[in-house]
Amino acid sequence: MTGIGQGVALGAGEGRRVGVALDTLTFKGAGEEDRYSVVEYEAAAGMPGPPLHVHHANEEAFYILDGEVDFTLGGETVRLERGSFVLVRRGAAHTFANAGSTPARWIGIFAPGRYVQLIEELGAILPKDGPPDEAAVAALFARWDTAIVAQAES
In principle, which of 39, 45, 98, 115 could form an S-S bond with 108, CB 3.0–4.6 Å? Predict the structure, then answer.
C-alpha cells in the first residue's frame, strides 16, 4: 500500500481481507472518516447471501465483474451478470445470492465508508459450516441501522 498525499493507492491483490462465511472481501479503502468505501467481493458458488434487509443510514452500489448474482430489490429479483450495476438507496429492501456454480465477483461501494465495519462484524459471527445465529445477525444489523425484512410467504 502506498500513500499518495491525502489518499491511498493499492495494487492488485492489496487491501484488508475479511471472510464472511465462505465469501472473501478485500477492502480497498474504508475508514471512519471516508465518505465511501470500495470492496472487492468474491461470493462462493451457491452462497445464499444475507437475509432481505433495509439500510436506514447507508447506500450501496454493486458492479458485477464475474458470475451470476440473483439480486432482489424492491420486490423484484433479477439475474445480474458481468457488467451489470445496481444502486441500493437508503430504505430499499434488498438481498443477493450467487446463482452460479462458480464464484461470483463484484465491486461494492458503501456510503458512508464506515459501513464496511458491519461486514467485518458479520464475518466474525457467521460460521463457515452451518446456519447463522439469526438473533445475533438481527442484533448486529440493528446496531448498524439495518433491519431484516420478513419475506412474504408464497
Answer: 39
